[in-house]
Amino acid sequence: MGETRTITLPDGTAITLAPRTAVNIQAKNQGRMVTLLQGEALFKVRHDPAHPFAVMAGGVKATDIGTVFDVLLSAQGTTVAVREGASQVQAADGATAPQDLGPGNWVSIERTPTPRGTRQPDTIGLWSDGLLMAHAMPLSTLTARIRPWQSGAHALLDPGPGQQTVSG
């Protein structure tokens, strides 16, 4: 079964890693940068205006403006959701305008138009407490989200039901 791991940086920032998640952490004089190589992570950032904190994931950059936020890198793209505070998100190549996110806001940068929405802030990053919430999520996406948490095979043999949405 998948396990989470929390890394605390010297500045007090905590990064909770979901199963099968990999990050590269860099600290520079002018700022702090984490690259999410795969998976999902919840960031509880200790805000420091003199040393900005940013996360790069799949060509997307999320910059801390004093926040707790979740970043998911999947085959469908990169999703950033804010639990507390604020974050600014944009494609690293500048293809999209910066988007400011507040509590409960999320954006998924994967294709144009960029899906965006709002949900209850306390539901963001629930996986770090061992819970997974799905709201109008395609069954195929839910299956992919569960995969890192369970051992064994997970497969939808008929693609039709995979497009059905589920909530729970």
Task: Please describe the structure with a list of short key phrases separated by commas or semicolons.
single chain, 168 residues, mainly beta, 2 helices
Give a verbal description of the structure.
This protein is 7% helix and 46% strand. The protein is globular and about 50 Å long. The longest helix has 8 residues, at 139-146. The model has no long low-confidence stretch (mean pLDDT 85). With 168 residues, it is mainly beta. Strands 1, 2, 3, 4, 5, 6, 7, 8, 9 and 10 form a 10-stranded mixed beta sheet that branches. A two-stranded antiparallel sheet has the order 11-12.
Overall helicity = under 10%
Query: What sequence of helices (H) and strands (E) makes up the elements?
Result: EEEEEEEEEEEHHE
β content, as a range?
A: over 45%
Mean pLDDT: 85
* Secondary structure tally, helices: 2
Through-space gap between termini: 21 Å
Structural class: mainly beta
Oligomeric state, counting identical vs distinct chains:
single chain
Low-confidence parts, pLDDT < 50 over ≥5 residues? none
Please specify the SSE layout and strand pairing:
Blueprint: E1 5-8, E2 14-17, E3 22-27, E4 32-44, E5 53-57, E6 60-74, E7 77-91, E8 99-101, E9 105-109, E10 116-118, E11 137-138, H1 139-146, H2 159-162, E12 165-166
Parallel strand pairs: 4-5
Antiparallel strand pairs: 1-2, 2-4, 3-4, 4-6, 5-6, 6-7, 7-8, 7-9, 9-10, 11-12
How would you concisely characterize the structure shown here?
With 168 residues, this protein is mostly beta strands.
